[in-house]
Design goal:
602 residues; 52% helix; 27 helices; alpha/beta
């Protein structure tokens, strides 16, 4: 005896359930003789793709179709009732090579034997290899007039776009639960099997929109008992009863870890399947989410929740009790757990661990929210004096200027005068003569040539530079110096204020660059180089050991490019350190003052 889904496979378009738009389109094409050359049937498993392909193949060849369906009485229909060479059904999962595709390409040129059309039904067409698709591409695009291709697949995204664009596509949808329940009831009535309405609804829900899956469950339960009840359905399918599932959800949402583990233990002891329990819990949580979103009345009246009347009341109660964020979080965690249960060796441990994580995760979130609320409450309850201190600290960075308040004479309070105590006389300390100083900025007139040349005496030579400079200034107040004298003390420019902010910007800009030259410049700057901003340029004061390397043209180019990137118009110039410039100044001073006959002591 054949199974129920094979025995009651649809033989006419009127027998196909849940696919009314597709059935209407196909029957109209047959009535109007607008038959295409290639069709693509897509959808989930067991929704009627292959059945519709077989009905369509017989209908296009029927001599007297009735409302677009095969009559079943004509000569062609009788021949097609058995295996026929004009309707070729091929399983692409096992015939997916290039040779199989080439065989089809070679045979399509032969005319049908007893029919008007030769129909190729290729099931699971997404299993064909790339070479097979390429071999069939031209044939599917322009087949002979007597050939029709019907491709069926559950995964259309795996098909090449070139194949999809050459087919008339029909997307088969999942069959609604109420339609499935009526279909199962008709089959049970035809088989003489006793059942209850609640049991049939439960079987339809377990089918999850697939006619074949639902009929497989119905076939399993057909001999289970004299009358099929919901208890029989749950006991044979391994699913938990609705009350246990509702309690499990309530314990999870209320963070009752003991209750969660207790319910799981009871389900395991009663022989329930953890994957089935997880699916039921997901369905229940989804129903609660829908009921929370659109409202209890609208969800139940509109059929948006998939549950019986007893469960609907529990779902509505759960929707009123818990928040949307909590329900969605549980649904997300259960979705991850369902995918992991497929590969788990110990489903019970995996399910318990997933629910424990869900409960503890919610507890951690509650704890964080409580702490935040406590912080907000405490911050709002600062004492008045503490708030004043906080406000003063907040405005201390940029205090607003307060207007000067003039006091009236009556507001002026004189402070009592305190009589100062006599101070003791300070004993004089011996004053040490200061060390010889180097004149920081001698006036320009000092460098002029003296009117009368004279040989300096020994006393003049022994005097410090500062004293000799003052004497020279008093001796020649109107003397001038030419540009060739170059009597500028260059080391004074090296003691100018450092551009620390500019130096930091330069280093950060070099660090962002991946060039090897930028890394070299950064290493040189780290060896005691200081950045000082001059009037006309940016000075990079370098120690003597890196002065020559800093003076390299490539280093100067990198520094100028960095300054351009920072928006600095001044150019980079490499300078020596203060000590080096001081020695240069001594040498220049010796040359300059030697013309006046002044001898500088070392």
């Amino acid at each position: 005896m054949a199974t129920l889904y094979r025995k009651y496979r649809s033989q006419r378009f009127e027998d196909v359930i849940g696919q009314d738009p597709i059935v209407t389109t196909l029957t109209n094409q047959i009535k109007l003789n607008r038959i295409g050359h290639a069709y693509l049937f897509t959808g989930s498993r067991g929704v009627g793709k292959t059945s519709c392909a077989r009905i369509f193949a017989r209908a296009v060849n029927c001599l007297h179709p009735v409302n677009g369906s095969p009559c079943g009485e004509c000569e062609v229909c009788k021949k097609l009732a058995a295996d026929n060479v004009d309707i070729i059904e091929m399983d692409a999962a096992s015939n997916n090579g290039v040779d199989d595709a080439r065989d089809i390409r070679e045979k399509v040129k032969y005319l049908p034997v007893a029919c008007r059309y030769k129909v190729y039904i290729i099931d699971e067409v997404h299993m064909l290899t790339g070479g097979a698709f390429n071999a069939l591409l031209k044939t599917i695009e322009e087949p002979p007039e007597h050939v029709i291709f019907i491709l069926a697949t559950t995964e259309p995204q795996k098909l090449p776009q070139t194949i999809l664009s050459r087919c008339i596509r029909f997307d088969f949808r999942l069959v609604p639960t109420d339609v499935l329940a009526k279909h199962i009831a008709r089959i049970y009535d035809a088989e003489g099997i006793k059942y209850t309405a609640e049991a049939v609804e439960e079987i339809a829900r377990l089918g999850e929109g697939s006619v074949r899956d639902a009929l497989s469950v119905a076939d399993t339960l057909a001999s289970a008992a004299a009358e099929i009840t919901p208890e029989v359905v749950l006991s044979l399918t391994g699913a938990g009863d609705n009350a246990a599932i509702a309690k499990l959800f309530d314990c999870t949402a209320s963070r009752d870890l003991t209750g969660v583990l207790t319910v799981i233990d009871g389900l395991v002891k009663s022989g329930k399947s953890m994957p089935a329990v997880c699916r039921q819990l997901i369905d229940y949580t989804r129903n609660v989410l829908v009921c929370k979103s659109v409202g209890k009345d609208k969800a139940i009246a509109g059929g948006l929740i998939n549950a019986d009347k007893t469960s609907q009341q529990a779902i509505a109660a759960s929707a009123d009790k818990y928040e949307m964020s909590e329900i969605s979080r549980i649904l997300t965690d259960l979705g991850s757990a369902e995918s992991g249960l497929k590969y788990s060796v110990n489903p019970r441990v995996f399910m318990e661990t997933a629910l424990v994580k869900t409960v503890c995760g919610g507890q951690r979130e509650d704890d964080i929210l409580r702490r935040l609320a406590a912080l907000e409450k405490n911050s709002a309850g600062f004492p008045a004096e503490q708030k004043k201190n906080i406000e003063v600290a907040a405005t201390s960075v940029n205090p607003e200027p307060k207007p000067i308040e003039k006091k009236r004479p009556e507001q002026i309070i004189e402070k009592p005068r305190v009589k100062a105590e006599p101070q003791k006389p300070i004993e004089p300390q011996p004053i040490e003569p200061p060390p010889p100083e180097y004149e920081p900025e001698p006036p320009p007139e000092y460098y002029g040539a003296p009117e009368v040349e004279s040989v300096p005496s020994s006393e003049t030579v022994k005097k410090p530079i500062a004293e000799r400079s003052s004497q020279a200034r008093s001796a020649s107040p109107q003397s001038n110096v030419s540009a060739a004298d170059e009597g500028e003390f260059w080391h004074l420019k090296a003691t100018a204020e450092q551009g620390l902010e500019l130096q930091g910007k330069i280093v950060r800009a070099l660090r962002k660059s991946d060039a090897a030259s930028s890394a070299r410049v950064m290493r040189l700057l780290a060896r005691g180089v200081a950045v000082r901003e001059r009037d006309e340029y940016i000075g990079f004061v370098s120690p003597d050991d890196v002065f020559l390397q800093m003076g390299d043209l490539s280093v100067t180019d990198v520094l100028n490019a960095t300054l351009d990137a920072l928006g600095v118009k001044k150019r980079a110039k490499i300078e020596r350190t203060e000590d080096d410039l001081f020695q240069q100044d001594i040498a220049r001073a010796k040359q300059l003052f030697s013309r006046d006959g002044v001898i500088i002591a070392e």
